[in-house]
Design a protein that fits this description.
Layout: H1 5-36, H2 43-50, H3 53-69, H4 72-101, H5 110-131
Helix pairs in contact: 1-2, 1-3, 4-5
Amino acid sequence: MAVTKREKRLGNTYLRELGGSLAVYAVLLVAAIRFGRPMEEGVLRTIFLLSPMVGFCLGLWAIARHVNRMDEYMRRILLESVALGAALTAGLTFTYGFLETAGYPKLSMFAVWMVLCGSTGVVTMIRTLRQR
């Protein structure tokens, strides 16, 4: 399937918006780790440590805008890929929960987000290869 000029333009817009949000996230994350962790406990420290969520929210905004610009077919493909990735993530995290009871180390909740992104990426790649 050939990519149209419109799709390419929309993809570039999405990458700029998402890339900008990831840059904001990275800067705020480094600042939060560097300066927020050593601060005395309190409201200011909590706000400082939560500041990377600004970049995260900007990323959600970029994704929502991109999905809104997609046609119905691409939305359906994306939704199915995310749903399959979420199902795979649920299975993997549920399985690891049993392994934790067997003595495996406890994982941070950050790991679940990484697994979800990876699972969705793998599902998308498999589906793309199958459509060729």
